Amino acid sequence: QVQLVESGGGLVQPGGSLRLSCAASESIRSIVTMDWYRQAPGKQRDLVAIITSLGSTNYADSVKGRFTISRDNAKTTVYLQMNSLKPEDTATYYCHITTAYGTHYWGKGTLVTVSS
Predict the structure, then answer these.
(1) Could you tell me which of 115, 116, 106 has the C-alpha nearest to residue 38?
(2) Which of 3, 63, 79, 87 fits as disulfide partner to 67, beta carbons 3.0 to 4.6 Å?
(3) 42: Cβ–Cβ under 8 A, 6 or more apart, which residues?
(4) In whole angstroms, what is the distance from residue 109 CA to residue 116 CA?
């Protein structure tokens, strides 16, 4: 059973930066997209950033210009560089991978808290 493990969350002051990582426990074939979602307490889980197998990226409007998604295909790892963090970025961040076979993998999440 493939597992996705996120890391890099924590407490940061407004304006600060964090880099999230998500690594798969084993190689995953035919990845179509790798993405990051986030869920704040009492709210739905929303897509934050997505990167395709060809390297195309897209972002939620709320994070454009501040967050950058990237991937390391050789390591089946996806990253999320988060800069200029705001209190409203506080949430649990989840990585997600979709394959061409229709398989979806989810991590268990990493908590990001932006507070002074």
Answers:
(1) 106
(2) 63
(3) none
(4) 23
